[in-house]
Design a protein that fits this description.
237 residues; alpha/beta; Rossmann fold; Arc Repressor Mutant, subunit A; 2 domains; five-stranded parallel beta sheet; four-stranded antiparallel beta sheet; 12 strands
């Protein structure tokens, strides 16, 4: 883990105090912000192992803060807190780059467990990256993907991708010919095992195709196997 610092962006001082106590017990250094603008400023100007971000904030709402953080830093994980129960709010959080969410009121043990799981996943990803340097660059005909530089070139032109789009494409390109169901993609890329959010995968696939396919309506790279899932075809084969 590159940092032991965690940022809590939350305007309820009681929640902040409770979370800070338990995260400090984990050996984490807790930074705090009580509104969206100051939280965004701290997120951009510091390195954090995790950002805990409330959805409803003064000055700037959590979804916008999340979106701007991910524009600046695609890798720092974000755990979103929400008092709303509507599915659309959770989906929007995932769409703009949140890595996990928890609904208020929440149990502190559940929150701590989520924090541990996210940090473990980050540590594991770091270890995988260190042990698999040969996989950090993928090259096929007219297709180059550099994981370390977070770049994708197709036919010599750079392709701008969001963090989740990049993760999806990297998973596909690392395993050409392998077929993934929406449920499996949801679990591998988002880390969720909850049913009902597979349409998030579909929307990301559609946006990804719009960026990398010559004809998104007739995809040649990310193929659909009806009733099964999606498969990446090596360009030129």
């Amino acid at each position: 883990m590159y940092s032991n610092k965690v940022l809590i962006v939350e305007d309820d001082p009681k929640i902040v105090e409770l979370v800070e106590i338990h995260l400090s017990d984990l050996g984490l250094e807790v930074h705090k912000a009580g509104d969206g603008i100051s939280g965004l400023e701290k997120a951009i100007n510091n390195s954090y192992a995790l950002i805990i971000l409330d959805l409803m904030l003064p000055q700037m709402e959590g979804l916008e803060v999340c979106r701007r953080i991910k524009e600046n830093d695609k890798y720092t994980p974000i755990l979103m807190l929400t008092a709303r129960s509507e599915e659309i709010d959770k989906v929007l959080g995932l769409e703009v780059g949140a890595d996990d969410y928890i609904t208020k009121p929440f149990g502190i043990r559940e929150l701590v467990a989520r924090v541990k799981a996210i940090i473990r996943r980050v540590d594991l990803d770091d270890e995988k990256n260190q042990n698999k340097e040969s996989e950090s660059r993928l090259e096929f005909k007219d297709f180059i993907m550099d994981v370390d530089k977070h770049t994708v070139y197709l036919h010599g032109k750079p392709i701008e991708l969001t963090a989740k789009e990049f993760e999806l494409l990297h998973l596909f390109a690392s395993h050409p010919g392998s077929t993934y169901s929406r449920e499996r993609l949801l679990n591998l890329v988002w880390g969720y095992q909850y049913e009902g959010y597979e349409h998030t995968v579909s929307s990301h696939i559609n946006r990804l195709r719009n960026k990398i396919e010559k004809d998104p309506a007739n995809p040649q790279l990310i193929k659909t196997l009806w009733g099964v899932g999606y498969r990446f075809e090596v360009p030129g084969e």
